[in-house]
Amino acid sequence: MVKKIKYSSLAIASAAFSFTACKLPAVVEKAENKNTPASYNNAQDSTNSAKVKWKEYFTDPYLNALIDSALQNNQELNITLQEIAVTRNEIQARKGEYLPFVGVKAGAGVDKKARYTPQGALEKNVEIAPGKETPEPLGDFLIGAYATWEIDIWNKLHNATKAAINRYVATVEGRNFVITNLIGEIANSYYELLALDNQMDIIKQNIDIQTNALEIVKLQKEATRTTELAVKKFEAEVLKTKSLQFDIQQQIVETENRINFLLGRYPQPIPRNSQSFTTLLPAAVHEGLPSQLLANRPDIRKAEQELVAAKLDIKIAKAQFYPSLGISAGIGYQAFNPSYLFRTPESILYSLAGDLMAPLVNRNAIKASYYNASAKQVQAAYNYERTILNAYVEVANQLAKIKNLEKSYDLKSKQVQALTQSIDISNDLFKSARADYMEVLMTQRDALESKFELIETKKQQMNAMVNIYKALGGGWN
């Protein structure tokens, strides 16, 4: 029967390195204060559009169908879901570290000692039973269970689990941020597609107008009231406008394919209703209070969780300087012959050992880990502070843009109306020889450009509506 109880103490606690915790850097304290302005432009309305579901915020059924499909099939989003699974598994791994490790083992072997050695001579003279000497070679058969356990006296392992949980939550918030951006990108691309369709319609209308003007110029030439130069100028203008169709068509193809890519599918036509684009009105936006960004913006929540995890990493690194207590134990059966293996109590063995270990000399690696954890904590604090600042600036910019675009659109509408009327006026003046052909051409060109600009402004209005919703943190919930 083998019985063994072993207690070992290596580098006792009194010899351990004493490490004093340093004060949190000022940037970390500042980031945790979450100092944000009290309002946007002194507005105190706490109603926030970020709370509105995306299916209610966007009322176009074609757009909603595209978003719904993207949330199911977008590759980037699906990749993020796998990152969440990885961090969730990391929690299980960290939890397992502060629980006892228990296993079973079995083994068999044979050992022949040299006769003229102390151990060989002793084995030769040992009788295992009356008239029976130790067999040669000597077998070794073992079956048993063993356990090891590190006692988490400094909460090092528990803090590692907490940090893993915070990083898991951070990846969930990262997924939410991907969802917010994905919805915004699809909506912006969809409105760009509607704008391109309307620009294509304007080009076709302008081609008809210019073709009619060309016929008038030809009649004027036949009546010797103008020259061949005027005819060629009008022909060139018609050809130039026709060529624009293909530029717009290429942009339509690329925009459709961008949407298809976001939906995780190969190129195909995008169903849409372009007829009502010019009459679309941006949704009413309620910006709420800046402090609500801390709860609504997934990127801020992600940065906050990463900061908390970084603080825990410092505690983990600091605990490396302190003694660690480990316990190991084993129990089982061992014999040189399988027939003796389960003879009790002769073949029973068990062991119990406790180890107390602490770093005493050459702690450079531990110091480096601690300094790295401290630097990463400051880095996380700066990132958290920057994310909040960026969110506020984004909202402020989009609020100003919405107001300015509204005023710009009203003025451009009046400009388009005036230039559209001027086309008929210039044609009439040209027919009565009171205006030359260049005035007609410039009027038509200005009208086309103003209509393009009006469509572009409308698109920017719709994009601003999408971007403020994204900036406020809407879409993911």
UniProtKB/TrEMBL annotation:
Membrane topology recorded in Swiss-Prot or TrEMBL: Lipid-anchor
GO cellular component terms listed in the entry, alphabetical order: plasma membrane
Lineage, broadest ranks: Bacteria, Pseudomonadati, Bacteroidota, Chitinophagia, Chitinophagales
SUPFAM superfamilies xrefs: Outer membrane efflux proteins (OEP)
Family note: Belongs to the outer membrane factor (OMF) (TC 1.B.17) family.
Signal peptide per UniProt: 1-23
InterPro entries: MdtP/NodT-like, OMP_efflux
Coiled-coil spans in chain: 402-465
Protein localization: Cell membrane
GO terms assigned for molecular function: efflux transmembrane transporter activity
Keywords carried by this UniProt record: Coiled coil, Lipoprotein, Membrane, Palmitate, Signal, Transmembrane, Transmembrane beta strand
Primary residence: membrane
Short name of any one Pfam family annotated for the protein: OEP
Gene3D superfamilies, alphabetized: Outer membrane efflux proteins (OEP) (2.20.200.10)
Protein name: RND transporter
